[in-house]
Amino acid sequence: MKNTNPFKQFIAKRFAFLHKSSFLAFVQKEFYHIFRDTRTMLILLGMPIIQIILFGFAITTEVKNSQIAIYDPSNDIATHQITDRIKTSQYFDLVKYIKNPAEINSVFKDGKVGLLIVYGEHFNENLMHTGKAQIQIIADATDPNIATTLIFYASSIINSYQLDMMKQLKIPYQIQPEVKLLYNPQMKGAFNFVPGVLGMILMLICAMMTSIAIVREKEMGTMEVLLVSPMKPILIIIAKTIPYFVISFVNLITVLLLSVFVLNIPVAGSLFWVIIVSLLFIFVSLSLGMLVSTLTNSQMTAMLVSGMVFMMPVMLLSGMIYPTENMPAPLQIVSNIIPAKWFIISIKNLMIKGLGISSVLREVTILSSMAVVLIAISLKKFKKRLE
Amino acid sequence: MNDKIIQSNPIKPSTEKVIKVENLVKRFGSFTAVDHISFEVEKGEIFGFLGANGAGKTTAMRMLCGLSKPTSGKGQVAGFDIEKEAEKVKASIGYMSQKFSLYNDLKVWENIRLFAGIYGMPKNEIAEKTDALLNSLQFESERNTLVKALPLGWKQKLAFSVSIFHNPKVVFLDEPTGGVDPATRRQFWELIYNATTNGITVFVTTHYMDEAEYCNRVSIMVDGRIDALDTPKNLKEQFNANNMDEVFHQLARKAQRSE
After folding, report:
1. Residues A175 and A201 in one domain
2. I need a surface site. Which of A31, A186, B44, B100 has the fewest CB within 10 A?
3. How many interface pairs between A and B have CB atoms less than 8 angstroms apart?
4. For position B163, what pLDDT does the model report?
5. Which residues of A touch B95 (CB under 8 A)?
6. Residue A354: predicted pLDDT
7. Do A207 and A129 reside in the same domain of the chain?
8. Is A216 found in the same domain as A81?
9. End residue of a domain, out of A182, A208, A228
10. H/E run at residue B124
11. B66 near A CB under 8 A
């Protein structure tokens, strides 16, 4: 009855530790550490829910119901028609009619009005007779992104009015641009941040929590006792990462469920590949956490290192909040070594665009190589410490 | 009180050497932490390993536990070579460190089960022995208490009991009674004596010189070398001292290096 398949023998030998009660006892202990620390556990499991809701509803880059003011010295049919279109648009809330030009500067001062539309004098008359009328759009550019968006919305409304007029006049040559928004036709900000939030949460839990958990044992002196025991050091580390792997997986499912059912973002591509790529990213983050734990000796340092070296760049350089394409060249180069960047690109392609796995082969390759390199370095460091 | 304990635990005549060390050296770069030390420890003996901070105690102990590889020299613990058979050494020793070595957020019985499990003890044996241990410590009522709720003295006693739970040949104690009150220290030493009657060899480092008197033999390390090794009684005679404290200070004064 001897098993002669060398591959099976190899696997059986490699995974023999799984059958040993010592390994399971150890994993169980790790779960106790987490479940008995109610506050930390609530943070770990509640964080994705809070972040998704925050980003989904509170922090939104979409511009809606912006306060707008109008100065209309012409007060004729054309300006009324345009003003009506602006009033009925969901983007603007008309809050003020300015009576004289002196008020123009003061209207922005209290910071509520984001945009002012100034019609030229004799607007309709000029339009009908000379074919030219003037509108000035003045925006509060304190936040340049919002200003740009508002100007874009206002210009579109004015353009559409102009197009409608031209149709009535039957001008033979017309170029009508037809804009189609792919993948995210309603231009929802959620489509952009869900992959980002996912990347950030997985990074936080895997890298930061794992490194803290391992360093805590060093700090408490229990690591010494474990290293003196017959348990293999590598198994100690694996056992410590397993609970965080499980929690990350729970969070992954939570985020996916929230995006589908609360934010109404469908998983356009294959759910299978979304999960596989996420698992790969979890693996990279866990190895990063392992590396930090071999380099630091106090929980405080581990937290600072993970926070400053991992979290900040992930938020700022991964393309989660600011597109990497807009960054200066040196920062773009730096952003390449951030695993979350590649993860976010993959998830956008797989989940939002609904592309196949073949579209993210490059990203998956980069993430896999990162995992291999990180594990190799941390194993080397870990062994060296034991000498 | 000391005399009573010592009288009840005379050195048992035994020829079995549980620890054998020959010319053990550990260098870190140009710094020689442990400088050609040699000694033997017999089965059932309480061996005191003394030295000022930085004398090389911890480094020597780490080599004996298989945590660190010697630069040169030979060593055997429980019959296994510390360099080539570190895994077997680890399986036959127990260890308790100066820092508290149980998990605060685990219950008393969970700590016992965890460490017994790590040393590969079968489940039914763990359950039986746990009952017996808690009984003998009169700890039955604390079985389900989280360790962090126990007073320090109890934690130390429990940590020691856990370190010998799997019946190791040698137990290494690294300043086990640090910060514990004298009454509890005495109870702790009673536990140590009990362990030796079961054939467990005790290798202990300590800062308390009164505890050195409890040991069967004491070695004193100065600057990486063992400068004295004998029974407390012989050492006192040799150095013409009233107690171990005086012996220690006469030797430690010669030290060239400090922390």
Report:
1. no
2. A186
3. 75
4. 94
5. 224-225, 228-229
6. 85
7. no
8. no
9. A182
10. helix B123-136
11. yes
CA distance B133 to B111: 13
**For B123-153, what is each residue's pLDDT tens digit?**
889 999 999 999 988 888 999 999 999 988 8
Q: Tell me whether B100 touches chain A (CB under 8 Å).
A: yes
Contact A229 B115 (CB under 8 A): yes
Q: What are the pLDDT digits (tens) for A305-339?
A: 888 877 777 778 877 777 777 788 888 888 888 88
Contacts of A21 in chain B (CB under 8 A): 117, 120, 123
The Cα–Cα gap between A324 and A314 comes to 11
Range of the domain at A262: 190-386
Query: Residue B117: its chain A contacts at CB < 8 A?
Result: 21-22, 24-26
> CB-based contact (8 Å) between B230 and chain A?
no
Q: Are residues A107 and A154 in the same domain?
A: yes
Q: Is A234 on the interface with B (CB under 8 A)?
A: no
Whether B118 and A25 lie within 8 Å, measured CB to CB: yes
> Same structural domain for residues A355 and A322?
yes
- ipTM for the predicted complex: 0.83
- Give yes or no for B208 touching A (CB within 8 A): no
Instruction: Check whether B59 has a pLDDT greater than 80.
Output: yes
Residue A373 lies in a domain: yes
Chain A 17-76, residues with CB within 8 Å of chain B CB atoms:
20-22, 24-26, 28-29, 32-33, 36-37
A376 and A257 in a single domain? The answer is yes
Query: What's A151's domain CATH number?
Result: 3.40.1710.10
Q: Which residue of A has its CA nearest to B173?
A: A225
Minimum mean pLDDT range among A219-228, A278-287, A363-372, B71-80: A219-228
Shortest Cα distance, chain B CAs vs residue A379, angstroms: 16
Amino acid at A59: I
Smallest CA–CA distance, residue B99 to chain A, in Å, is: 6
Residue of A nearest to B163 (CA): A225
Residues B216-256 have pLDDT tens digits of 999 999 889 998 899 999 999 998 988 888 888 888 887 77
| Number of folded domains that form chain A | 2
Write the CA distances from B53 to B59, B65, B206, B208, integer angstroms.
Answer: 11, 19, 11, 13
Mention every residue, 6+ apart, whose C-beta is less than 8 A from residue B142.
B108, B134, B150, B154
pLDDT value at residue B167: 93
Of the three residues A128, A155, A182, the one that is the final residue of a domain is A182
CA distances from B181 to A74, A210, B31, B185 (A): 94, 36, 37, 6
Does any domain span residue A12?
no
Q: What is the spatial order of strands in the sheet that A92-98 belongs to?
A: A92-98, A66-71, A113-119, A135-139
B34 and chain A in contact, CB less than 8 A: no
| A93 within a domain of the structure (yes/no) | yes
Structural contact between residues A33 and B128, judged by C-beta atoms closer than 8 angstroms: no
Q: Are residues A145 and A283 both part of a single domain?
A: no
Query: Which of B97, B119, B123 is facing A230, going by the closest CB pair?
Result: B119
In angstroms, what separates the C-alpha of B114 from chain A's closest C-alpha? Answer: 6
Based on the fold, state whether residues A218 and A169 are members of the same structural domain.
no
**Best-predicted range by mean pLDDT (A86-90, A308-312, B185-189):** B185-189
pTM for this one? 0.74
